[in-house]
Design brief:
The chain has 395 residues and is α/β, with parallel strands linked by helices. The chain has 14 helices and 12 strands. The protein folds into 2 domains: 136 residues, Aspartate Aminotransferase, domain 1, CATH 3.90.1150; 246 residues, Aspartate Aminotransferase, domain 2, CATH 3.40.640. Helix 9 links the parallel strand 5 and strand 6. Helix 3 crosses helix 11 and helix 12 packs parallel to helix 14.
């Protein structure tokens, strides 16, 4: 008999993917260069040459059976040690290889981290706007996702509302900074108060409340913005990272969980995640990708294009009268739609071959997300289409 839970999910497919597929169909009709597709967060810059060189060197010099063989359930020791050394140097925390668990991207990291610190019936709190897949990630653990409403227009977390929502059932808090979809970076003041609340509530309920920090956009920050490392503020933090954006490797599915030194359970959490892998069929990302990334921890792709694109769009949108917070990072911008129904607004935008994503599934109705990880030349050519879209609402 078919699993009805997953059958039901077919009726709630990703609006991001649906918009992306529409763009593919439209491109076949009028040409890819004429479709301004801001739907999918797929990096638009190549991986750094150091990664390509590392892959070539590994394939040329390493013994094939060893290179392509199984690695331990906890991950490749070379990768774990290199990540720990890099994190310790960057963030001033005494990470060791025993704190690092390699995963298939940030999604794998989140799935493992959440399973490790929740049980069925627990509650996980996140802040809108948030990545829509948080719902399935949390539901898959048997826990319940609770959402703190968005605090527009600045989109810093509403910590007053959060403090009221925390209860004895709260097992974890899930944050994403720099944030998808808003592009906002949680400030030092935000992180200090969040840590204070978590410390007080953990003491009140006699159990640790874990902070699960989703950080795939950590390296994409603009104009020297204040971009604190969440684990520096709160001991019970599991940091979830991906190289999909920093090294432009989304298809390689490589990331990690970093268990903060001093975290409750630090001595067993990585081993627990290895056991979770048995349950989920995860069993480590590819060995060669772990080894190659271990050689590229201090480099990134050329991420400057995203700041260039951000400035072009932010300046044009503000000129046209959109209410929009200037992104501090990522490659997303999150303006308020020019009508109350963001879905209708996105359908109107399609008339000008602008493909935008409504904010409803991100927990912020009335807003739209633009993923500006596309060629800068194409961003420039899209600006007249935004002018035409805005003009349609002035008529």
């Amino acid at each position: 008999m078919l699993n009805e839970q997953y059958r039901a999910m077919l009726a709630n497919k990703s609006v991001i993917r649906e918009t992306f597929m529409f763009g593919k169909q439209r491109a076949a009709q009028i040409g890819y260069e004429n479709v301004f597709d801001y739907s999918l967060g797929n990096p638009s810059v190549p991986c750094p040459p150091q990664f390509t060189a590392a892959m070539q060197q590994l394939l040329a010099a390493e013994e094939p059976v060893a290179l392509h063989g199984y690695c331990p359930s906890q991950g490749d020791p070379v990768f774990r040690a290199a990540v720990a050394k890099s994190c310790a140097a960057r963030f001033g925390l005494p990470y060791t290889a025993n704190h690092i668990f390699p995963t298939t991207g940030a999604a794998g990291a989140l799935s493992h981290a959440l399973r490790a610190v929740t049980k069925p019936g627990d509650e996980v709190i996140t802040f809108a706007p948030y990545f829509p897949e948080y719902g399935p990630y949390v539901v898959g653990t048997g826990a319940v996702l609770r959402v703190v409403p968005a605090k527009a227009p600045e989109f810093q977390p509403d910590l007053d509302a959060f403090e009221q929502l925390v209860s004895e059932n709260t097992a974890a808090v899930l944050i994403n900074t720099p944030n998808n979809p808003s592009g906002v970076v949680y400030s030092t003041a935000t992180m200090q108060r969040l840590a204070k609340i978590l410390t007080e509530k953990s003491a009140q309920y006699g159990q640790p409340i874990y902070l699960v920090s989703d950080e795939p956009y950590r390296e994409i920050v603009f104009d020297g913005v204040d971009a604190p490392y969440p684990a520096a503020f709160y001991e019970n933090t599991l940091t979830c990272y991906s190289f999909s954006k920093s090294l432009s490797l989304p298809g390689e599915r490589i990331g990690y969980v970093a268990v903060r030194p001093g975290c409750v359970g630090e001595e067993v959490l990585v081993d627990m995640m290895a056991q979770i892998s048995r349950f989920t069929g995860h069993n480590c990302p590819p060995s060669i990708i772990q080894r190659a990334c271990a050689q590229c921890l201090d480099v990134t792709s050329d991420l400057s294009v995203y700041q260039t694109n951000m400035k072009l769009l932010y300046d044009k949108l503000t000129e046209l009268g959109f209410e929009v917070q200037r992104p501090g990072g990522t490659f997303y911008i999150f303006p308020k739609a020019l009508e109350a129904d963001a879905n209708a607004f996105c359908m109107k935008a399609r008339e000008f071959d602008l493909l935008l994503v409504p904010g409803d599934s991100f927990g912020a109705p009335g807003y739209v997300r633009l993923a500006y990880c596309i060629d800068t030349e194409k961003v420039r050519r899209s600006l007249p289409a935004f002018e035409q879209l805005a003009a349609a609402y002035r008529r």
